[in-house]
Design brief:
3 strands; 21% helix; 2 helices; alpha/beta
Amino acid sequence: MENRPFEGLKVLDFTWGGVGPFHANFLSYYGAMVVRIESAARPDVTRHSRGLGEPEGSGGLEQGPVFALTHPVKKYGMSL
C-alpha cells in the first residue's frame, strides 16, 4: 500500500461547527491521526442535530446524524 501524504502527522482538532471539522477530516483521510478535543460544557453544535422525522429532544449527544457525517474518522477526547 502506498504511503499517504500526511502519514505520521498528529493533529488536535479544536474546531466547532461545520467547516473546521470537514477540513480536519481531509487530513485524516490522507493519513494524519486527528484527535477531536471538545468541551463538555459547550459540545459541537452538530451534536444537537436530529434525523428527519425524529421528535425534538430525541437521541442524545452521540446520535446526531450531522455530527456523524462531519466527524467520521477521528479519535475523540472530551475536555471540561
